[in-house]
Amino acid sequence: MDLGIRGRTALVAASTGGLGRAVAEALAAEGARIIVAGRRGELAKEIAAGLPEAVGVEADLTDTDGPRRLVEAAHAAYGDPDILVLNGPGPRSGKAVDATDTDVAAALDTLLLAQHRLVALTLPAMRERGWGRVLAVGSSGIAAPLPDLVLSNTGRAALAAYLKTLAAEVAADGVTVNLLLPGRIATDRVAELDRTRAAREGRQLADVQAASRTAIPAGRYGTPEEFGAAAAFLCSASASYITGTALRCDGGLVRGL
User: Fold this and answer.
1) pTM here?
2) Among 181, 185, 110, 100, CA closest to 144
3) Phi and psi at residue 132, to the nearest 5°
4) pLDDT at residue 98, as a whole number
5) What's 213-246 look like in SS3?
6) What angle do CA 116, 86, 166 make, to 5 degrees?
7) CATH of domain 9-184+226-249
8) Torsion angle, CA of 104/94/193/11, rounded to 10 degrees?
9) Closest Cα partner for 118 from 156, 66, 53?
10) Residue range 126-154: average pLDDT?
11) 3 state DSSP class of 166
12) Which residue from 8, 10, 32, 170 could staple onto 175, CB 3.0 to 4.6 Å apart?
């Protein structure tokens, strides 16, 4: 299936590892030109060198001016981005009763404000051209808040509300705005959460992972490649009538519709 994005420019935030990298690689495989972005600039350049057409850019999106510098670098390389993939590192685990003002503010800065700045910088050109894709890498915690992840649950839910509102405002301009919600995908982030849970509960890591697999109807963790493929479709020309939605890529983990 030709996704119709060959030659399009995709800016993929936090794409030096995990789900962001998987999305960048999937879009590259479809012929898109990629801006690989992350705090580890040399790694971003290394990953970009392995893709058909890409540049690597060092970017700290938690820095107030970081989004502007990233978009300027993308523009210098390939012009205005057609596709914006919002992504960022998940905040530390923790309980709601223990969260401080500083914790919540930091989560919102990373998971909402930085993403809003990127949207504000790239959306006008998309609307002017009459074509654009904004896709956020979210979390199944938006649909069913996850235990001991209050900061992630809070920040990602705020971003989802913002993007849902935005989607209706720009749909007539040919710009779609969606979220893709991972469940248990085999990334370093999920491995870290599994280790944290095992230590907290005094259990073996293998037991924690086995229990997680049992809770997933598919009976396994997903792969980054599966997530990347779903993301590429939502960024495609074929998905032009899909907007304002949150698609779960979770093997059936969340039991609600």
Assistant:
1) 0.94
2) 181
3) -175, 155
4) 94
5) HHHCCCCCCECHHHHHHHHHHHCCHHHCCCCCCE
6) 50
7) 3.40.50.720
8) 0
9) 66
10) 93
11) helix
12) 170
Q: Which residue has the tokens 């523009």?
A: 75
Could you report the per-residue pLDDT of 27-85, keeping only the tens digit for each? Answer: 999 999 999 999 999 999 999 999 999 999 999 998 999 999 999 999 999 999 999 99
Token pair listed for 251? 């093997």
- Output the 3-class SS for 64-132: CCHHHHHHHHHHHHHCCCCEEEECCCCCCCECHHHCCHHHHHHHHHHHHHHHHHHHHHHHHHHHHHCCE
- Yes or no: say if 182 and 250 are a contact pair by the CB < 8 Å rule: yes
Give buried/exposed letters for 68-102 (b at 16+ CB in 10 A, else e). eebbebbbebbebbbbbbbbbbbbebbeeeeeeee
164: left (phi over 0), alpha (psi -120 to 50) or beta: alpha
> What b/e readout covers 187-207, taking b as 16+ CB neighbours within 10 angstroms?
beebeebbeebbeeeeeeeee
Q: Which residue has the tokens 């493929």?
A: 229
Q: What count of Cα atoms within 13 Å lies in the side-chain half-sphere of residue 192?
A: 10
Is the distance from CB of 147 to CB of 215 less than 8 angstroms? no
Identify the residue whose tokens are 């900061």.
Answer: 151
CA separation for the pair 86, 163 (Å, rounded): 11
